[in-house]
Each structure stands twice: as C-alpha cells, then as structure tokens.
Amino acid sequence: MNISKQLINWYTDNKRDLPWRNTTNPYFIWLSEIILQQTQVVQGRPYYDSFTATFPTVFDLANAEEQEVLKLWQGLGYYSRARNLHASAKYIVKELDGKFPDTFDQIIKLKGVGDYTASAIASICFNQVTAVVDGNVYRALSRIYGIDTPINTSKGFKEFKTLAQQLIDPKQPATFNQAIMEFGARLCKPKNPDCNSCPFNTICVALQKNIISDLPVKLKTVKVKKKYFNFIVALSKDNKTILEKRTGSGIWQNLYQFPLIETDKSASHTIIESQVKNLDLFKGHNITLSLYNDKAIIHKLSHQHLYTKFWIVNLNDDLESGILFDEITNYPVPILIGNFIEKFNF
Prior knowledge:
CATH architecture of the largest domain: Orthogonal Bundle
Distance between the termini: 61 Å
Helix content: 40-55%
Number of strands: 9
CATH superfamily of the largest domain: Hypothetical protein, domain 2
C-alpha cells in the first residue's frame, strides 16, 4: 500500500502555519532543521525567530563571534549544534562564496548535517526526491506497516529509509516529507496517538494488533551515569563573581560556568570547604562558605544525570579579576547555570 496521496491530502488540510514553511531559502530551512533537532516546535520557534532576526543571512552568522551564537542558543541544549552551525556558516562563506550547497551529496558534507537534515533541505529547497527519516517518520511507518526492526540500528535505518524512499511522491518531495513529519508530530504521537482521526486507522497494523505502544522498537542504550557537581559561586565586596570557560570536547564546550568541584558522591560542607580553600582562586582570601540548595538539583542529559549543588563563597575583600554581577548575563551558560543566575538575582 502506498500512503503518499492520503498523507499529502491530510497535510494540506491540517498543516500548521510555521515561518520556515513560507520560504524555500536554504539558509532559513537549514537554521530551522538544526534548531529542531532534539527540540519540539513550540520550544524551537522562538529561537528560529531570534536567529533569523539577529543573523538574517549566512554572512551575518559567519561573521558573528562564537560567544554571541552560543548566548543566543542558550537554553536549547545540545550545544554542539550551535558550534557546528557556526562552523558551517563560516565554511559556506569562505569556501563557497556564500552560496548554499544545492545537492544532497554536498549538503551532507556540512558539519552537523546528517542524512535527515540533508534530505529535508535538498527536497524542500531544491526539489530533490530524497526521503527524510526522523523520529516522527520511524514512529509513523513502524506502526502503519507493523515493522519491529529496531530503529537505532544500521539495519533499521536502511529498512525505513528504503520504505520512505519508495513512498515519497517524486512530483512533490518537499510536501511529502513535511507531511509525514507533521503526521508523526501531531497525530501519530509517542503517547496517546489520535487514532480516531487518523486517515490510516483502517489499515494500520499496529492498531489492528493492539501493539501501538510497542512501536517503534528501540534497543536499550548506554546506562545513564550519575555525576555530582558542586558549583562555587563567589561573591566579593566589589560585586564580582567568577565564571570560567569550559574547554575540551565534553558537555557545554565553550560555555561558561562557576568554578566546579566534581565529587564521587554527595559531599559534605567540610569536604567542599577544604577543596575550596585549596583552589588558587581563593588563596589569600578569607572566605565564608554556605550551601544554597540543600536538595541537589538533578539535571538530566542523554547519558548522564548531574546532581548539582551551588555553594556560596562570601569574600571579605575585593576580587582583582572577576566579572561584575551586572555583566553575568552577557555570557553564554548552560541552562542549569542560567536558571540559578535568574533565581539568585545577583
């Protein structure tokens, strides 16, 4: 069975009015697709509006400082997306004279772009017949056709990509791709799908076999690790604090944070105080240490949960180096730090 025509008809009647659907400009489509990776539309749309307003062309994005890009991205998470976006913008401007690549094979070479994103841009902007496969597509196709091949395997990707490629309307590839993504996002949802309104409820294998909640199949991933973060928030007499830039390739690369003490488990006041006094930052200062939050804030990332406490260090003198309280919000920080800053109200 080929569901293409029904899917497009449903989409025509039910599609949402979203800003990136009113353009075929590859720069804007690229921005929207990168922002919407791992992000729902309701959360991503304000970021899309901010990025297109602040960086209306790929030249504007390429010429921006990374700190500015990361600050605008703050709160979206998966910050490698922003760094890759910025790097690719520079590549397009410097190596391609600002002309966005116009084929799937060229687009997928951009940093941070995979098969799904390249397919979306190639079909929407350049009318290429290349099907998208994302979480929404996996879910819809696995249920309608009753496919139980794990989606997070190479075999699963190939099977679903082949099926989607067979179904795509060669005359309307952009419409088909957007239709199947919209269908998965709005009708064939992960939980409580609207089967009564579904145009495929008479042929859906998962509905007939009552296995909707079992599909799609995903193999269990790596066990989530627990980490214990202790952020040290300095408060000096001259209204300064300390923020440090994270380096390396770990989480939050190039974002700013308060000095961090990582422990193997939840640490006592005595242990943290001892470690704080040994930090070069505070040597020569008389300090008073207090705990801001008795209960750890649990920040959940894909493969790790951060059990976080904020410790306040009051200094009885000035900080020669440091950041004025009024300037803290100029720095891009992880949402965990951003929430603290907002609540603490320096």
